Here is the input.
Amino acid sequence: MRTLIVNGTVVTADGSYQADVLVDGETIAAVGTGLAATVTADETIDATGKYVIPGGIDVHTHMELPFGGTFAKDTFETGSRAAAFGGTTTIVDFAVQSKGQALRTGLDTWYAKAEGNAVIDYGFHMIMSDVNDATLAEMDQLVAEGVPDFKLFTAYPGVFYSPDDHIFRAMQQTTRNGGLILMHAENGPAIDAVAADLVAEGKTDPYYHGVARYPVFEGEATNRVIRLAEAAHAPVYIVHLSVVDALNQVRAARDRGSMAFAETCPQYLFLSIDDLGNGFNGAKFVCSPPLREKNPNWQELWTGLRKNDLQVVSTDHCPFDFHGQKELGRGDFRKIPNGLPGVEDRVDLLFNGGVLGGQITKERWVEIISTEPAKLFGMYPKKGAIVAGADADIVVYDPERKRTISADTHHMNADYSCYEGWEIQGASDVVMSRGSVVVRNGEFTGRKGHGKFIKRATTDYARMV
Ligand code: DUC
Ligand code: ZN
Ligand code: ZN
Here is the structure.
């Protein structure tokens, strides 16, 4: 099957230009002007007035994550389908090692969840709940099989939490095996102390979830894990950075030449602690780190994205229904499952609020939603690029189309949207995954099981600073 995309504006991280794109089978065969005159194709897609961009890459999703006695509701089938509707053609999900298990057991569980179900390509990171001699040795095996990064937590004592010596040991291991440590950086023990005080005072509403998790607790933990990485001569990637206190730690580290990288998420650019108010309705917005004060955080995060102190925007997609799941925390905000639905809206929110909002160029938009995630996570230029030889993961994007976000029309498995009623501009018309059109003009045309596991390479992080 050959497909020719004609008359579009190819938008890449490096620049934009008019060009046609020829897809042959699963890969891009040629990019150039006037291809229609010289090649034949089975299908021609007219992209006049549209952008032709590499498919979005969301390197932070949690399909079926066990959390707080329940599970994130999207499966690989429903979640990857929702991702495709939103112009994302690759996800990297977090496999979970439960305490006492081997990494292998957790990873095999995630292979089984995804295989035969995902509609777009996927990779895995490994959440490490135990760091010991056995799991440290297993890390080398995972790096070799294309799962080269590991998430550790300074939050959630008793569940995912790792003490500093465990984090340091894991970092040392990646210095040897070329992997990358991803850090959820919030001071969990301090947060739990404040949260216990608040509940004892009768402050049990979702809003206090935001109050308990002081910005300094994220700033302190961010600095600590970066310092530990420096001591181990290891790169480190801070996930879901939410607040200026933490951003300043990343800025300072990068200024001193550290291999420190970080992502933020749409919820920290567009939502605030005010959304956590409104009684128990605020439970819809409970995630960790929490939503922050609008000022100065939103603008500082945009500045961080412009200046490359933040390299990626991912979603931390982790959907729970309001009814029946978020409600587990009525009367005690500590029991509200943490997480928001988001995988479907990232590309459009970033275009509408970022590009049309005057915060970033359309080239930087492509960079932070696709190209940089591909580079940092060992998938470039197979993913994240419109070049001959790359996987034909392509979105024909309409920068003019308007739509209203709503739980009534979204495809994520959640009974609410954090952006209900938002009118935004910019939408994916055609979404192609390895040469197959999976979404066309709002209709799903893909296939369950089309998505393949991506064996990811290690990256030379020193060259990416
Ligand atoms: N934060 C969330 O909001 N959900 C899943 C896990 C996490 O760290
Ligand atoms: Zn996290
Ligand atoms: Zn997460």
Observations:
- The CA atoms of residues 121 and 314 lie 16 Å apart.
